[in-house]
User: Which sequence fits this backbone?
């Protein structure tokens, strides 16, 4: 496969394995951010240099280094990602240099080598430095290799945000560069960025968000997990401690780790939460990047949750052949692609090293078999476009050779198969090898003293010790298996056998500590009780709240039963309230040419304004309001006067929008969802609630359309300008038996089906909020 890269792609950055050619940026259709890794610097060649040595391809390594020195230009007029260039190219050059000097010292290969890769690394390091020219010290996300930043020719430098991992994954490469060369500036810059992120952590939860403003330090995205956008920030804090021996990095890592285990870890799941309200889950799905986390937990010495999460991920892989880019909490595919990411192989390698359990070799074998069976193509390995269909994408990212090959090889390699002692090195996030002796070289940058800023963590888990298999598995070779055993069917989709125990539990008449009718999602005490009962609260994008119970996450079996009772009460409350509060969907019908009433869009009603079920329909031409969100007085009243105004959802209450368009003279309003891709086919309709005040002043009818339906009207305006619609209770030609969107009381098989299981899905309304209840029960 290295040969395939040389033959078909070199000197291009990446191989296109389906068409057997190189991917040259600018010559292929743009793929957006993904292309920011491509700097016309033979990315795959540099990223895979040290893999060649690990695989004992020393001669090939020597040739590859010569090619890099002869052909690679780091001065291209191309805008690249600072993060990707650092981990793949700077890391690749430094990993190559580390092994080149190791080989030279051995006296056989690389005798001619005179630190040339290091000189290239230094040149690249200086090219990245202008990115740090911000008051915060956080780097800009992109830089032009030739023109730097901000100059007009640079075509970059106007960005305001970056991801936490992007700003926090520099210290290993930058410190190594400083220590190899004696130029301290690199380590200083990387430290400054890390210091700033630490300062900005959310102080009550000790979590960081996904995206931060590089000028103000404000969190732009306040959700927090261990996957995409944050992952390697945590990894580099722990590894910086290992490589540089600076205690402050370990203290920071431990503080974050404590928060992760408190809020994000919901074994075997790792679920994103809000940094300000860490008891609230922010998502119903997990991304594939978090698969590195069990490997990091091994390095930290916390093996039990590492085994649990890894086992859950393995079962997802067995179900879909690969880890989908994102999957739901009930293990369905959320994003179907898989770009041959190495994170799971990485964790498998570290777990095998920690446990010696041959189970992990079996896991590795499955990974290799699946790669050969589903991803191998004549010119290499192709990314999966959709793990469900097995379709391919013409893409083989450089990390496939840099990381996947390395970790899979190392998993099966004996000590004698590797020509150097791998234990003398640390793996960067791109699996490049940096020698641990750097910790005692050129230490001119002052270490931060440990200060009272760090909370004492009262837990032996945070001892200043390295993981030790003797302590981790005291006299029990079956320890890892005993942790995996209860999880062995966690993702299994086989149907449960019975529900007797659930019903028995309810017949006993016991009441949960929190009654469903009293529950308020804003009450912190209620949230505590929920957590104890294994019930997670997830805020959905459309404003609803989802309740999910995983009985295995409850504090005890009694709490789990309480959780069940609570969920059962919620379901009962739901069906009761559904009966009371059901509202038939409304319709927006396009009646003008060329639609003539044939296009009928399902719309949600409002709890205020003209009730279309009691009054005649409203007919009128549509006009977009300005501002489009309708949150302030309209600047185009002449355009909406006597018309039905279109307004975008968000930024203020529905009632406020209604008042603003009514004041401008509109005869009705249609609010269009701002969640791209939403549709009444896939999301349940809801009523637009008032603002808690008297809404009698709102006289015009208001309807809600999801984004897909809304864009039909917007497209029609673009094409025909004059578009007339009818807002009504129900269009006359609509079929009867269309399913009631509120009436979803579905019994399905739970993914947690190690034994008797049952799940319910139901939509309920409680205290004017719509809840979706999903109950997973495990026995
Ligand atoms: C790699 O480039 C690195 O591991 C990075 O930290 C995130 N993940 C990709 C591969 O998935």
Assistant:
């Amino acid at each position: 496969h290295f040969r395939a890269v040389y033959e078909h792609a070199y000197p291009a950055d990446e191989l296109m394995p389906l068409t057997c050619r190189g991917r040259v940026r600018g010559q292929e259709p743009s793929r957006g951010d993904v292309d920011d890794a491509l700097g016309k610097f033979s990315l795959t060649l540099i990223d895979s240099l040290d893999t060649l040595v690990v695989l004992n391809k020393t001669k090939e390594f020597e040739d590859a280094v010569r090619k890099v020195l002869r052909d690679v230009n780091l001065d291209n007029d191309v805008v690249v990602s600072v993060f990707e260039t650092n981990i793949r190219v700077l890391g690749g050059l430094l990993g190559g240099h580390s092994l080149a000097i190791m080989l030279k010292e051995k006296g056989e290969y690389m005798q001619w080598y005179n630190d040339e890769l290091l000189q290239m690394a230094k040149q690249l390091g200086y090219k990245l430095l202008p990115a740090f020219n911000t008051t915060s010290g956080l780097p800009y996300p992109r830089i032009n290799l030739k023109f730097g930043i901000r100059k007009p020719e640079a075509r970059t430098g106007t960005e305001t945000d970056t991801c936490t991992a992007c700003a926090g994954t520099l210290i290993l490469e930058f410190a190594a560069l400083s220590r190899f060369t004696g130029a301290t500036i690199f380590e200083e810059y990387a430290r400054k960025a890390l210091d700033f992120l630490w300062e900005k952590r959310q102080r009550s939860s000790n979590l960081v968000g996904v995206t931060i403003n590089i000028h103000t330090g404000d969190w732009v995205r306040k959700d927090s997990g261990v996957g995409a956008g944050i992952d390697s920030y945590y990894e580099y804090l722990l590894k910086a401690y290992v490589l540089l021996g600076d205690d402050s990095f370990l203290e920071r890592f431990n503080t974050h780790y404590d928060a992760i285990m408190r809020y994000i870890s919901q074994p075997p799941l790792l679920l994103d939460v809000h940094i300000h309200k860490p008891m609230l889950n922010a998502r119903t799905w997990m991304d594939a990047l978090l698969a590195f986390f069990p490997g990091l937990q091994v390095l930290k010495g916390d093996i039990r949750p590492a085994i649990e999460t890894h086992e859950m991920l393995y079962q997802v892989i067995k179900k879909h052949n690969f880890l989908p880019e994102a999957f739901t909490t009930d293990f369905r595919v959320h994003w179907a692609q898989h770009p041959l990411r190495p994170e799971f192989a990485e964790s498998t390698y570290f777990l095998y090293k920690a446990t010696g359990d041959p189970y992990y070799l079996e896991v590795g074998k499955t990974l290799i078999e699946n790669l050969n069976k589903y991803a191998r193509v004549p010119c290499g390995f192709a990314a999966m476009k959709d793990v469900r269909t097995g379709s391919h994408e013409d893409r083989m990212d450089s990390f496939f050779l840099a990381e996947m090959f390395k970790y899979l090889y190392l998993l099966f390699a004996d000590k004698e198969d590797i020509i150097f002692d791998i234990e003398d090195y640390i793996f960067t996030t791109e699996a490049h090898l940096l020698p641990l002796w750097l910790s005692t070289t050129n230490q001119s940058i002052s270490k931060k003293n440990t200060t009272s800023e760090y909370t004492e963590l009262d837990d032996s888990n945070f001892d200043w010790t390295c993981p030790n298999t003797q302590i981790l598995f005291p006299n029990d070779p079956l320890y890892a298996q005993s942790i995996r055993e209860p999880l062995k069917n966690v993702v299994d989709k086989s149907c449960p056998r019975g529900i007797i125990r659930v019903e028995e539990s309810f017949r006993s008449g016991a009441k949960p500590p929190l009654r469903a009718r009293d529950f308020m999602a804003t009450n912190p005490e209620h949230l505590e009780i929920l957590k104890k009962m294994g019930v997670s609260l997830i805020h959905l994008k459309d404003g609803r709240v989802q309740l999910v119970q995983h009985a295995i996450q409850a504090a005890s079996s009694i709490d789990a039963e309480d959780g069940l009772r609570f969920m059962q009460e919620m379901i009962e409350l739901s069906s009761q309230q559904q009966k009371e509060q059901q509202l038939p969907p409304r319709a927006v019908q396009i009646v003008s040419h060329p639609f003539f009433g044939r296009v009928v869009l399902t719309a949600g009603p409002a709890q205020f304004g003209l009730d279309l079920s009691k009054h005649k329909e409203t007919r009128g031409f549509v006009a977009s309001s300005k501002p489009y969100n309708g949150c302030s007085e309209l600047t185009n009243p002449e355009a909406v006067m006597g018309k039905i105004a279109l307004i975008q959802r968000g930024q203020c209450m529905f009632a406020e929008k209604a008042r603003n368009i009514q004041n401008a003279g509109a005869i009705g309003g249609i609010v269009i969802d701002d969640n791209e891709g939403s549709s009444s086919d896939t999301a349940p309709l809801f009523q637009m609630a008032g603002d808690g005040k008297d809404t009698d002043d709102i006289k015009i009818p208001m309807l809600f359309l999801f984004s897909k339906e809304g864009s039909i009207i917007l497209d029609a305006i673009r094409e025909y300008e004059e578009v007339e619609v009818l807002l009504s209770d129900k269009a006359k030609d609509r079929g009867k038996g269309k399913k009631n969107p509120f009436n979803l009381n579905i019994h399905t098989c739970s993914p947690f089906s190690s034994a008797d299981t049952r799940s319910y899905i139901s939509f309920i309304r409680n205290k004017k909020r719509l809840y979706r209840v999903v109950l997973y029960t495990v026995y």
Notes: The radius of gyration is 29 Å. The chain has 24 helices and 32 strands. The CA atoms of residues 268 and 371 lie 25 Å apart.
